[in-house]
Specification:
Layout lengths: L22 E4 L7 E2 L12 E7 L2 E7 L1 E6 L9 E6 L6 E4 L7 E5 L5 E3 L5 E6 L2 E9 L6 E8 L2 E8 L8 E9 L7 E7 L4 E8 L10 E9 L2
Length: 225
């Protein structure tokens, strides 16, 4: 099932020791369309911040979201709705995430990476500091994997479990930078053991527990109907 056919069902989950309470939406999720009778969450909830890229770099801007009904062709699956933002095409949208403020922020290079069994490592650099991502997975023998984030002598393991079973796992880092302006790396990722499960996970350095690099500050998931 393509991501454009995904249900609008959203949920908040706990991954390992990480606690999340915020909402995060990947920018590309806005254009897929949703199926269902009600919005996936309170779109009129305030305040929302959207991350956009300008010539001068990245900036967090206050945003407003709108939930609209789309016309469905006779015989097509429906009803169908679209979630839109007044920012055009933001990279991500967040709400109820402590410590985030509107303004310019630093982005990491490179900004996006996909991890897989064949490409199990990725590296990003922020403010002259390198951060490494590595993937260990026992798939297809078991529905588990571990993403390890490390920088210098510090490292942190992020376990990924097959919450809805396993099959065609995917591990993507959609954006990386200093979203909370504390000088350390933050990133938006989708770590999943199943093709139809798309948890959007926002990890912030300011949400990290003692001895950790990041903590899960927001999680919103899309699951297939």
């Amino acid at each position: 099932m393509s991501e454009a056919r995904l249900s609008g069902a959203f949920a908040f989950l706990v991954f390992g020791a990480f606690q999340s309470s915020g909402i995060v939406v990947l920018g590309s999720d806005l254009y897929d369309g949703y199926y269902g009778e009600t919005p996936p969450f309170a779109v009129d909830q305030e305040p929302w911040l959207g991350l956009v890229e300008e010539r001068e770099g990245f900036v967090l801007i206050p945003a407003e979201l709108e939930w609209t009904s789309l016309e469905v062709a006779p015989g097509a699956e429906g009803p169908r709705f679209r979630l839109s933002a007044d920012l055009g095409r933001p990279l991500l949208l967040v709400s109820e995430v402590r410590g985030l403020r509107a303004g310019r922020i630093a982005g990491a290079s490179p900004a996006m990476a996909d991890l897989s069994v064949r490409t199990a490592r990725a590296e990003v650099e922020l403010g002259g500091v390198s951060y490494d991502f590595s993937l260990e997975s026992s798939y297809p023998e078991a529905c588990t994997a571990v993403v390890t984030v490390s920088s210098g002598n510090a490292s942190q393991r992020i376990p990924v479990e097959g919450v809805f079973g396993c099959g065609d796992p995917h591990f993507a880092i959609h954006w990386a930078g200093d979203l909370d302006s504390d000088g350390a790396l933050d990133f938006l990722a989708t770590f999943s053991m199943k093709y139809s499960y798309h948890p959007r996970q926002l990890f912030l350095s300011s949400a990290a527990a003692p001895g950790e690099l990041v903590g899960l500050a927001a999680l919103t998931d899309r699951t297939a109907s």
